[in-house]
Amino acid sequence: MKNAMHDMTVAELAAGLKAKTFSATEVAQHFVARAQADTTGSFLALNPEVTLAQAQAADARLSSGTAGALEGVPLGHKDIFVTKDFPTTAGSKMLEGYRSPLTRRWCSAWARVVLAWSPWASSAATNSPWARATKTAPTAR
């Protein structure tokens, strides 16, 4: 059995949320704290207030039985995806501060956004935990 939420698979997190082993708010708090403690420079944007509000809304849907399959499972994504509450820079300084006027709702079965991240290949200065010495992309495991 895995002890930490960050060691759980998406399926394990979803099952734990459905079984009410933990709440979406607890999951969000865990992942926000991990992102805030990150020292790799991988995260471009983190919005704890929005994240926790989304988690509380997910908890309400989980309680009412209207939740999608992955409701409450946090999602971090590359910043090439246009989202309402996070900047979209595509790793470019030219788009720094850009916020799209468009709002795209994720599929109702999908998770809520926790953060936007910068992969090792972006122009942002990152320190990949998988390739600290070489500064190259990690190989498939």
Q: What structural class is derived from the secondary structure elements? A: alpha+beta
Give the number of DSSP strands: 3
Distance between the termini: 22 Å
Q: Which ranges are low-confidence, i.e. pLDDT below 50, for 5 or more consecutive residues? A: 103-124
List the keywords:
141 residues, alpha+beta, 3 helices, 3 strands, 28% helix
Describe the 3D structure:
Helix content is 28%, strand content 11%. The chain is an alpha+beta fold and 141 residues long. It has a 3-stranded mixed β-sheet. The longest helix is centred in the middle third of the chain and has 17 residues.
Describe the structure in brief:
The chain is an alpha+beta fold.
What's the structural blueprint in terms of helices and strands?
Blueprint: H1 10-18, H2 24-37, E1 43-46, H3 48-64, E2 74-78, E3 112-117
Parallel strand pairs: 2-3
Antiparallel strand pairs: 1-3
Helix pairs in contact: 2-3
